[in-house]
Design goal:
heterodimer; A: 123 residues; alpha/beta; six-stranded mixed beta sheet; 18% strand; B: 424 residues; six-stranded antiparallel barrel; five-stranded parallel beta sheet; 11 strands; elongated; binds flavin-adenine dinucleotide
Chain lengths: 123, 424
């Protein structure tokens, strides 16, 4: 029973992963996104991002958008160290996996746009 | 007084509760607010899966008190398997639900979330953990490996759990609940690897006598060098044989049911050659140092007032011979003893003696040859079978073959107990 469950679930998992990959390869890149992205601001690379990893100079990338949180850092409700650890980095996972009792509610998402610098350049 | 079923029910409930309490508490604590449904699902599956992995490690700890709480090592291992599988399913869906969430944002986002090269090392840790779990489980399920290699690959699973916890830690930092999970996991792994497998929690014994009755089996009597374990017939111990004058032990702990328990603390073990280590043990000599852990198991522990049917297959005779040696039967007991060849049947003479002298004890000794036993026929010889409490001990295939016949004969499932000489 367990053995069957393992085989079936593992196969389904890889089929799903392959499906997402195939969708990425075959689906056309949406036109709108590219143009609006350029309009929305400058592009930054991960290397540029990495240069801004200090408390008073703190950039982060979340979901492909680069933010400058230097001004926000002192206001962060949790210990600033939690956030400081992500300065200069791609921090989408950290931002999205916050949980109950922790700050990233809709409110946090509403705060984001005012710190926006531009887009992260895909490699 | 029939306390068997009530106790069993309570144990089952305890095990289920212990398995679920941690994951439920963790999910309740970590339940996300204000996120999209798919992102919430991803967080819930991650936390529940991680907590179940920790429960899974706790269920592999071989500690007599913990085992007693769970009703024995066998049920503990059953729940070890179940929690492990449930954790695996949850953790498989974790990246997928994240990807689905990305998909609704923009279809290309989904693959970006999954593709490790688009991500950073905290995510790689997660992938590494998942792949290790996959590999470890594949070796458990997909092949029938020799025990030692199987156990080696099983360590991949432990490593997978460690990487999984590291993945959560680097993403979330010092979250109190996560720290608790990490401490529990390290305690469980540490206990199992240091206290159990290396034998820190064991007691010293010495082999005082070795007898050879039938080919391919010895009986060793062990005398405590310090404190004696409080073992009762039906229970088993984990034993590592050390060195003697000529004998070199294989240095690993193996489970053996006691075949005799004396008042002075000595215990006997009947050991059949079934694989590399038990074959090696056949050359045992008096004076060999031994380390023992236990006792474990609840077999023959809480029997009802009902008449007893015992079924032993081959070396599965050990718990029954221990019970018969301990005291005369106080209630009606029928033993069906199955073996391949009479020349290899351990304790046959001794059992025949008991049958001749104890009016409560009936023996059906059955030579099966290479054929599977004819259970319908054998069970017909037991009067009022449905009133009996049934205790079965032997190789897993025999136990599995017998169970359906007992069901058909109307024996209450709560009144059937068995011990399979197989741990994985
Ligand atoms: C609860 C219980 C009670 C047992 N009582 C007896 C007994 O009274 N007399 C007797 O002769 N045999 C008994 N056995 C079986 C005995 O433990 C195995 O035959 C022995 O461990 C085989 O080891 P091996 O290296 O010779 O063989 P292998 O071929 O390596 O192993 C054969 C099987 O033995 C089990 N096993 C092996 N090593 C271990 C280990 N370190 N820990 C746990 N399981 C292991 C595994 O199920 C494995 O598949 C009992 C087993 C269990 C689970």
């Amino acid at each position: 029973m367990m053995r069957k469950l393992f085989i079936v679930s593992t196969l389904l998992f890889w089929i799903a992963v392959a499906g997402f990959w195939a969708a990425d390869v075959w689906l056309p890149e949406p036109m709108g996104e590219g143009t609006s992205a350029t309009a929305a601001g400058k592009h930054y690379t991960l290397a540029e991002l990495a240069g801004h990893d200090q408390a008073d100079d703190c950039w982060m990338a979340i979901d492909g958008v680069v933010y400058d949180f230097s001004a926000y850092l002192p206001q962060h409700p949790a210990a600033p160290a939690v956030m400081l650890a992500w300065c200069g980095k791609e921090a989408s996972q950290a931002f999205h996996t916050k949980t109950k009792g922790r700050p990233h509610s809709n409110y946090a998402s509403q705060l984001l746009p005012q710190y926006r610098l531009g887009l992260l350049r895909g490699e | 007084m029939n306390k068997g079923p009530g106790v069993q029910w309570r144990r089952r409930f305890t095990t289920l509760a212990l398995t679920l309490i941690l994951p439920l508490a963790v999910v309740w604590w970590a339940f996300p607010e204000g996120l999209t449904p798919w992102r919430s699902a991803a967080i819930v599956t991650a936390w529940a899966g991680t907590a179940l992995l920790v429960v899974n490690l706790l269920l592999m700890v071989r500690q007599p008190h913990l085992a007693r709480l769970l009703g024995g090592l066998e049920p503990a291992y059953l729940w070890h398997h179940r929690s492990g599988m449930a954790a695996y399913l949850l953790l498989l869906s974790h990246p997928l639900t994240l990807a689905v969430d990305g998909w609704f944002e923009a279809p290309h986002r989904a693959w970006e979330i999954l593709a490790p090269w688009a991500q950073s090392w905290p995510v790689w840790l997660g992938w590494l953990a998942l792949v290790l779990l996959m590999f470890g489980l594949a070796t458990t399920f997909a092949l029938r490996l020799p025990y030692r290699r199987w156990r080696g690959f099983h360590f991949a699973l432990g490593l997978g759990v460690v990487f999984g916890l590291a993945h959560v830690y680097v993403l979330l930092g010092e979250v109190i609940l996560l720290l608790l999970l990490i401490v529990l996991a390290l305690l469980a792994l540490g206990w199992r690897l240091i206290a159990s497998d290396l034998g820190v929690a064991s007691l010293p014994y010495r082999v005082s006598q070795v007898t050879r009755q039938v080919p391919g089996m010895i009986e060793a009597t062990l005398t405590p060098a310090a404190t004696a374990l409080a073992v009762t017939p039906g229970q088993f111990v984990l034993v590592a044989f050390g060195d003697g004058t000529h004998f070199r032990g294989c240095g690993e702990y193996h489970p053996f049911t006691v075949s005799g328990v004396a008042e002075d603390g000595t215990i006997s073990l009947a050991i059949k050659s079934l694989g590399p280590c038990s074959q090696h043990i056949q050359a045992m000599e008096p004076g060999v140092r031994v380390r023992l852990q236990g006792p474990f198991g609840t077999f023959l522990q809480e029997s009802a007032m009902a008449p007893q049917l015992w079924v032993a297959g081959g070396i599965g005779i050990t718990p029954f011979i221990a019970a018969l040696r301990a005291q005369p039967r106080t209630r009606h007991t029928t033993l069906i003893y199955l073996f391949r060849r009479a020349a290899d049947a351990a304790f046959l003479e001794e059992l025949t003696d008991y049958a001749n002298n104890d009016p409560h004890f009936i023996l059906h000794a059955v030579e099966t040859g290479k054929m599977p036993a004819d259970f319908p026929h054998l069970l017909q010889q037991v009067d009022e079978l449905a009133q009996h409490e049934v205790n079965i001990c032997g190789p897993a295939p025999m136990v599995n073959a017998l169970l359906p016949h007992l069901g058909k004969s109307g024996v209450d499932p709560e009144m059937i107990h068995y011990e399979r000489f197989d741990f994985r």
